[in-house]
Amino acid sequence: MSAGLHQRQGALLPAWIVVGAGVVAALHVGKLPPALPELRDALNLTLVQAGFLLSLVQLAGMTLGLAVGLAADGMGLKRSMLTGLMILGAASALGGWATDATSLLLLRAVESFGFLLVCLPGPSLIRQLVPAHRISTLLGIWSTYMPLGMATALLVGPFVLSVGGWQIWWWVLAGVSLGMALVLWRLVPADKTRVKRLNPDPDHPLAPQAAAWKHRLRQTLGSRGPWLVALTFTVYSGQWLAVVGFLPTVYAQAGLSGGVTAVLTAFVAAINMVGNVAAGRLLDRGVQARVLLMVGFSVMALGTLAAFATYPLTPQGTGLPASIRFVAVLMFSMVGGLIPGTLFSLAVRLAPSADTVSTTVGWAQQWSALGQFSGPPLVAGLASRVGGWHWTWSVTGTCCLLGLLLAWQISKTTQLRAS
After folding, report:
1. CB within 8 A of 193, min separation 6: which ones?
2. Residue 1 and which of 16, 94, 331, 363 are 20 to 30 A apart at CA?
3. Cα 88 from Cα 125, distance rounded (Å)
4. Per-block average pLDDT, block size 10, for the chain (419 residues)?
């Protein structure tokens, strides 16, 4: 039995390496927040420039997600991930020598492109590397790459920064990225997409490159499934980043120290992985995607209501006790994690064809980035207008209501595909 277990684990090793590559890419998204205070002092960054450094990853995804997905499907999945990791390594290494804000901003934009090249092919490559009965489980694990990378950067970043400064932090992650590229190159087999292009079937010649990507584009944008997955990602990602992104500010206003704030925020981000992994396992056991999406959005709505709303019967219109509000935020993130875990599986299932999985994920990534780009400013604008965070639940509640409606439409679409 032990030998059989080790054999199965060895067979899944390439898929785990793909997940690891996604986590490494996400480290570059999360490396900036802990470094911002030092960067502002070292490079004389204005608050606006610091804001652009934070949002450039979302801006690139919002504008290039579909294009990079098309490129990944065309150039080969493994080759796309290798290229992205090398771009991340090179840009981060050069970033460590940046002496002005403009250079760092440009290199941050380059990093965002590398991030997309790594993350968009992930689900499609995992689909090729694992048996059919393990796909949902591994895609659920894949969906942990962002919260795991973010939480790791939030926890490790302050230590590295205290020891060596922000340049060392940039160079460490450059080395990690290039090291992961080497591991991926050596241990992950060539994907079927690449093999098919190198060895085309003479009886079914491939269309020219331009015609091929236009066909994938028409297939993706002309299908109902990719749109539903993309829009659902939007209403999820916008509210999740708005809540988690402003937690340090909320905790600082409550008088907590910076160290405590970092640990609490990293914990809230990391616990999202529980829902990610659970989604894959529950889908494998036959639980309907619609049920998982509806549970996720319902708990997110209730969690933010409990965490942020104030009540007339409490003293001076305060909210629930702090311990209960923290548990509510944890539930918001943990159970909400069912949503991306389910959506990555749906992106594979609802893609118009096997050749459009990365394109479908790219389209979803583009809309997810739109949510991440617009959600935090919307919540911040409302908080500024009403003088506090106590109406945050109204924004997240609206997103959750839209998410429930989209989940119902996804259920109808999957039933049609199955019939």
Report:
1. 73, 76, 77, 124, 128, 355
2. 16
3. 20
4. 46 90 93 80 74 70 77 82 96 93 88 89 87 82 87 86 91 97 94 52 48 79 92 94 78 74 84 90 91 97 90 55 90 95 89 82 86 82 82 93 96 74
**With a threshold of 0.90, does the pTM exceed it?**
no
pLDDT of residue 58: 72
Which domain range does residue 149 map to? 1-188
Cα dihedral across residues 314, 318, 322, 327: positive or negative:
positive
Between CA 58 and CA 75 the distance in angstroms is 23
For residue 311, what is the DSSP state? -
CATH code where residue 93 lies: 1.20.1250.20
Judge if 410 and 334 occupy the same domain: yes
List C-alpha distances in Å: 37 to 95, 201, 382. 16, 56, 25
Q: Calculate the dihedral angle through the C-alpha atoms of 313, 318, 320, 325, rounding to the nearest 10 degrees.
A: 160
According to the model, what pLDDT value does residue 51 have? 62
pLDDT at 312 (0 to 100): 53
Same domain, yes or no: 219 and 306: yes
Q: How far apart are CA 336 and CA 342, in angstroms?
A: 10
Q: Backbone phi, then psi, for 389, in 5-degree steps?
A: -95, 5
Total number of residues shown for the chain: 419
Residue 194 lies in a domain: no
234 and 113 co-located in one domain: no
* 78 found inside a domain: yes
What is the pLDDT at residue 311? 61
Q: At what angle do helices 289-308 and 392-418 cross, to 10 degrees?
A: 180
Q: Within this chain, do residues 261 and 180 fall inside the same structural domain, yes or no?
A: no
